[in-house]
Design goal:
249 residues; alpha/beta
């Protein structure tokens, strides 16, 4: 693969990256190999900072792997498979439908298959939008799009710098925020018919401590077997259908 081609959603090479940024394409993040500096790289980094594009440094070996053998010259960008929106757009979508907002907040969901599955179920449950963090989380890459099986085309996804601050802003708008975590109340004990946001935590760590404190309530699913937790996307699916059922009765 040459400097101007891409593998999956990766565009590699300084000239190709610079043109992708100039073209206005939806760029997920800039990836720089450790030790890469000078020349056009400085201009690339400056343009990304100006546009608010996330910049991540990786080892040269990792960038080699990500680019599938392309001549990357120490620089590549990940192209988003879908445009991001603002949180306000999600609230407006609910308002336009005359419905109380129904929002899913993903707190550091790292597996793109999980994020894709959550998006697919969210669309089926008439969720108005999904919020994800900029860092330490899966983004809207090709794997997410494939796992969502087309649902990404119909789902608003906002990416924010701080989940805790976003929860505060939602609560100011009258949205009740519920975290999915262990040690909470049964899902049937909550009234989800009003403006609702569900927080789904990281696959291993669950919801962050600060995020959990911001929630208006913690909702748990009973476990009847020997394991004590479900896959994040499965738990999210059960809870999303609980909300959908309550709203459609």
């Amino acid at each position: 693969m040459n400097d101007n081609t891409s593998t999956s959603n990766i565009i590699a090479g300084r000239n190709a990256v610079l043109e992708a940024i100039r073209s206005g394409r939806e760029i997920d993040r800039l990836i720089i190999a450790h030790g890469t500096e000078g020349g056009s790289v400085t201009a690339i980094i400056a343009k990304c900072k100006q546009k608010g594009i996330l910049i991540k440094e990786v080892s040269p070996q990792k960038l080699d792997f990500m680019c599938g053998g392309a001549v990357h010259q120490g620089v590549a960008v990940m192209i988003a498979s879908h445009s991001y929106c603002k949180v306000e757009d999600i609230l407006k979508a609910a308002e336009d439908k005359g419905e109380p907002p129904f929002i899913i907040i993903c707190d550091e969901i790292e597996d793109p298959h999980n994020l894709g599955a959550i998006i697919r179920t969210a669309e089926a449950c008439a969720v108005h939008g999904i919020i994800i963090p900029e860092r330490r989380a899966a983004s809207l890459n090709m794997t997410v799009a494939k796992s969502a099986s087309g649902a990404l085309e119909y789902m608003l996804v906002a990416r924010v710098t701080n989940i805790a601050n976003t929860i505060d802003a939602l609560k100011e708008k009258g949205v009740w925020v519920y975290g999915a975590d262990m040690g909470g109340a049964d899902r049937h004990s909550f009234d989800f018919r009003g403006a609702t946001a569900l927080v789904i935590g990281n696959e291993g760590k669950g919801i962050g401590r600060l995020v959990a404190k911001k929630c208006d309530g913690i909702v748990s699913l009973p476990m009847y077997g020997k394991i004590n937790s479900l896959n994040a996307s499965v738990a999210a699916g059960v809870l999303m259908y609980e909300v959908a059922d309550q709203r459609n009765k």
